[in-house]
Amino acid sequence: SVGSRSVLRAVVVEKNGNQPDFAVDLNATNFDAVLRDTPATYAIVEFFAHWCPACRNYKPHYEKVARLFNGPEAVHPGIILMTRVDCASKINTELCDRFSVGHYPMLFWGAPPKFVSAGPKPKLDKNEILGIDDGRTADRLLNWINKQLGRHVTPFSYGLEDEKFENEHLQSNVSDPGQIVRAVYDVEEATSTAFDIISAHKMINSETRASLIKFLQLLVAHHPSRRCRKGSSEFLVNFDELYPSDMLADKKQETIIANGKGTLGNFQICGKEVPRGYWMFCRGSRNDTRGFSCGLWVLLHSLSVRVEDGESQMAFSASCEFIHSFFICEECRQHFHDMCSSVSSPFNKTRDFVLWLWSAHNKVNERLMKEETSLGTGDPKFPKVIWPSKQLCPSCYLSQSQERNGTSQIDWDRDEVFKFLSSYYGKMLVTVYNGKGLEDGGTDKAVADDLTVSTNALVVPVGAALAIAVASCAFGALACFWRSRQKNRKYFHQPHYFKNI
Ligand SMILES: Cc1cc2nc3c(=O)[nH]c(=O)nc-3n(C[C@H](O)[C@H](O)[C@H](O)COP(=O)(O)OP(=O)(O)OC[C@H]3O[C@@H](n4cnc5c(N)ncnc54)[C@H](O)[C@@H]3O)c2cc1C
After folding, report:
1. Of 303, 238, 202, which Cα lies nearest the Cα of 463?
2. pTM given for the model
């Protein structure tokens, strides 16, 4: 079987003391399929010949760069798929001819689908597929890539020494400051995944409709990612036509869909590049330990620090209702609902809402800390902690004392905590974000634009056509996972937290 073959290969590789290859070997039989299916935004194809000595010498250089982008241990996953094709293999003759390979090694760059749709004679021009003219060493190749992605300015540029930011040696609370700058991509992924789940489970009905509209309003004005704001506004603009309240009141969603409405279907709230099927800030060291639920928390925190004082009650109730209606983890939604319901007076300051959410999250952490320790279900690299740690925010701590039962009692400086959260989930979260995606060039100006726009009011889209894309495999797996755990779930009536205020 393939499994045993790969095991054998791993053993052989180890025996020879060689590193496994990071670049993916392609040939005429899998070229189109691999490039069509990759979630990466760009691909590099190296055409080489196994008999060519220069190619053999070039391989370690190419591999050094591929280590950064390819495979489960990639430092910068999902951006570039690095591949190679052996033109000396007969099966690839036609493929190499298609790309007019005239010397070895020859490198091409482009969006993966462009390689597939390139036809018998690909357009080797600036808009389609580019020849890489200066990639003779690992350094030069990475420089070329950095320039191509607009990342030639530090601290945005990729470096050969970059290490996976999921820090293997430190606990999450220590490595957080380095990671949060990338968390906006997980916020995009979580937003997208949440809407995919809503769609797959047909969760929009007369009871949940108002909550979704309210949450969408919050996303349109305050989502830290421009493309999620844009997608949310497109959805909101079309909401009434897609999910008419009169039809939802007395008909099932299936009927609406049959009538050509309710086509959230494959709509991608943050654009068709998201979800990408991986997590950066929320990447666990084990499968299924972090990911979506972590991303959802970061989304809620990042929204909370962006609202104005006057919006804080609306943001609170929108978040509570969204979790209650659409987070299909029964225990999570129920506990969160209890915490929401125990709030006795409405919020009229951003600060109060931000601190409430922080404290609610810490209550969950405290409960899970015990559970995960006794059951061994937590992620060993990311144990639950009362957050932020003293290392992360020394000024947040007035004092900390150890109780007899081993728990610690913290006296927080709440003004400092608010300051810290505002900066952490505000500016820091979007530090390296460019509003278009990882790959489109992280210029200072784009970052600044994005920060400004995210606190301004609604962005009305010009063309409100919904983007249709195929839901990702990652989502499929996730939805199945949730579905299998929540088979008997009943939808509850909508809660209204101070709905008349
Ligand atoms: C609304 C909600 C309710 C949930 N309720 C439950 C539940 O009842 N039972 C259950 O098993 N799981 C629950 N979960 C999932 C659980 O809280 C974690 O999300 C999951 O276990 C993954 O944990 P994590 O290590 O990625 O960190 P998470 O707790 O997901 O936190 C993500 C990141 O937020 C930061 N953070 C941590 N604490 C705080 C804080 N207090 N304030 C601000 N930022 C913080 C840290 O950087 C952390 O890495 C819930 C999730 C959500 C979104």
Report:
1. 238
2. 0.64
